Amino acid sequence: TITHTHTQATEQECVFKIFFSYLSYLYSGRKLFRLVAVSFGLLCILQAALNISLQKLSYFRLFWETLFYTLLTKCFYQYFQQGWVYFRPSFYYISSIKKSWNDSRDDCLQRGADLAIINTKEEQDFTRRFKQLMWIGLTDRTMKGTWKWVDGTLLTKSYWGQGEPNGFEGKKEDCVEINFFDSENSWNDIPCEDQNFWICEKKVAF
């Protein structure tokens, strides 16, 4: 609502500024006064038309969003039935049992997915909502200190908890979990053999 109102006000201000600047350039004195009086009425009509257009645009957007989620529900009904959660543009599955990082990934692959790859702050915030310790698809097993996602891409934006990664007490901590979910920086490295819940991600193309 705030964004919509701001956009509408900005567009109206722009119309007024351009219109009156043009009148000032062409006319002066009484001619300007008379023309402004007439033009004010025209601008009121223009403003009403603009409001109607924006309202129609809002209805149009609402229509397509409703259609999108209706088709989403119908086309991917089986995913919702199996416990998947949709967060654009992917489906996510959170396990109800614990396994090692490798076994967790195998489970995701069997579901046609993989352990979650977190690319944005929005996705990071989404994974924290579950308030669950769980594996994500990040590891440095191939080369110590070089963190890679399960699709082979290097880690660029991270959300490590304070002091992480650290190889606590000299342990070989090569896999990553969501741990400090009350904080935006919630990642923690632990041994890949530890038992943990996990989150799968299945990207969907429309």
UniProtKB/TrEMBL annotation:
Record GO terms (molecular function): carbohydrate binding
Record's keyword terms, sorted: Disulfide bond, Lectin, Membrane, Transmembrane, Transmembrane helix
InterPro entries on file: C-type_lectin-like, C-type_lectin-like/link_sf, C-type_lectin/snaclec_domain, C-type_lectin_CS, CD209-like_CTLD, CTDL_fold
Signal peptide limits: none
TM regions (residue ranges): 32-50
A Pfam family recorded for this sequence: Lectin_C
Domain C-type lectin intervals: 87-201
Annotated protein name in UniProt: C-type lectin domain-containing protein
Organism: Amphilophus citrinellus (Midas cichlid)
